[in-house]
Amino acid sequence: MADWLNNFEKIKDVDLKNRPLKAEFFKEKTTLVLFYNNDCLGCTGRAIPFAYELKEEYGIQVILIHSNFSFSVTRKDIESIFSTPELPLDVFIDENHYAYDQFQCEGTPHWLLIDKDLNITQSIFGSQPNAQNRIIYSLAEMKSQ
What phi, psi does 10 have (nearest 5°)? Predict the structure, then answer.
């Protein structure tokens, strides 16, 4: 098992079931992890919609991780940024930004692209076109292999 998976041990599921983010979530799947914050407009306005588009277009798994910096969020807070009654993506809460710190995120949004063999192939900050293009190029390269 990849050592980095231990960094997710303190993350709880937003549905308040206290379901930990375990290795089973990542096995044999290309996964895009998006560290975000509900108060980050680049996250809610660009990154999350883009992540959803990538899920639909590439058939990858997308996991959103809200990193708490100043106050706790509720499920209602999380749901408020989506236009659908059901959450379209798996959302977890990193209460004390533990995983965010462990992965040395540069800010929000911050992306981790993880291949089927549990290798972190990209760590990218931002929601602007340059960051989005890097993710698209990486996914296209992974798909061609």
Answer: -95, 5
